[in-house]
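Record pair follows.
FIRST:
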Amino acid sequence: MGSDFEFIVVADQTWGYDVIESAIVEVRRLEALLTEFAATSQTSLINRNAGILPVHVDSEVYALIERCKQITALTQGAFDITAAGLRKLYNFKRGQFSLPKSDQIKSALKKVGSEKIILSDNRSVYLNQRGMHIGFGAIGKGLAADVVRKVFQEKGIRSAVINASGDLTAFGNRADGSPWRIGIADPSDSERIMAWLPVENASVATSGDYEQYFERDGVRYSHTIDPKSGLPCTGIRSVTIVSASAEFSDALATAVTIMGVDVGLHFIDQLPGVHGLVISDENKVFTTKHFRLNTKPHNKI
């Protein structure tokens, strides 16, 4: 998944090590199943057969794609796993950024849209356009965090944090009985905590352009690509979403980045049990109505 994972477990020392090892095994299993970058994964198999034939997949992959299509409908297309193909138009890592030509974007957008993912009752997945490409980069880490949480709980762990490079879930309390506290990084300095929030049996995901972005003619372009326009997002430096599910929070953080501050926060306010924080490219902080944010320093983040 191209990310560091951190597991914190409150348990007997020996028992805790064994449980953490099971979490590592589970994340590696998901990576092998879902990665775009290994020819043996089911995602790669689906992509190679785009416009050619349906691919039979595991129930876990099929259910994930079903949920992704539902989130696409919920966000009116702001989240879309078929937008993975648009990344080929851009280079954010080598200092050679340039906006593609309009005809290139128009051609690429013909292969975008979750309605082009055809799911059959026999658990087959078919991308109905040649050259289509799906990817789980905007939801996979959250999924992994949720799956590990389930593994921990099934093994009797009562308190833990699973952190997938900023997409995390926490349950129970610290060893001293106090709530887990999650820090929110300053977009201008990712090593500095600008605020924190207590997390009790909840999941938090942050989408930001801390490392992958480019500035051209005074405009800061995010690495997140709008599935509707085919252009990089502007105006937002980071989005943090809190909900019951790390997978859902992960996907919504991407969606709000694409929607923008006003529309994105209004959308989140309509979802029961979901809260959000947005930092604009001017470093202004906006939150949904009931977001519990603490800016006082705390030595136990």
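SECOND:
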Amino acid sequence: MVINTNTSASSSARLLAESSSMLSKSLARLSSGSKIVSPEDDAAGLAVSSRFDAQINRINATRSNLSNANSFVQTQDGYLKKVAKSLDRMSELAVLSQDVTKSDADRALYDEEFQTLGAFIDDVATKDFNGISLFSSSAQNVTIDSDGNTFSMSGVDLGSSTYTTATGSSVSTASDAATALTNVKNAITELAANRSTLGANMARINTTNDQLGVLKENLQAASSRIKDVDVAEESTQFARYNILVQAGTAMLAQANVTPQSALRLLG
């Protein structure tokens, strides 16, 4: 029996330190909800989950861009609905002005409303959305994924010659009214095509937004499997390490007491 070197106490102390360390890690995992509380816990898993988290954040930004683009298109269509009603009324006025029972004085009254509606359409063509022209021939590049890829959203130009010719017409005479009717009908046809274009843009934006939502859910699930703690399993480990710490403490105390038996030999 030796007293200078207490091998049992050293071994017990080492094992107690290991159990205490594992208990601390288990406690940290349960309190944080993450099983990777330090890079050493899962270096590769940390790298993968970090990339997933960054991609998820970029997807959130992309969906925000898509929502803004959708608002842009909805605003365009809101104006075009009013333009459609104005053109419909202008075509009606052009037909009324061709009535043989109407005098030019009557047509002048029709023309006053006709010109007012035309001025409204010309004004709509100058509207913008957060400083961006709503009705320009230029296409807008809309972000569609986390890598910054885009699709070209076709523009709608209310300043095209088809519209300006219609709004610049007159119904002050029967012959002018006949010409105006042809011009307005052409504008109505172009407006129908433009609204169809907006519908296609909306469909693309909404479809892309839905697809990104599904991708985000899948990435979150993948990231969760890597870094989120299984509370049931970790609680079991916590209880195990807690018992080991208590047992190790008791055994270390016992190991420190054992050398005292040597004193009895000296007595």
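COMMENT: DSSP finds seven helices and four strands in the chain.
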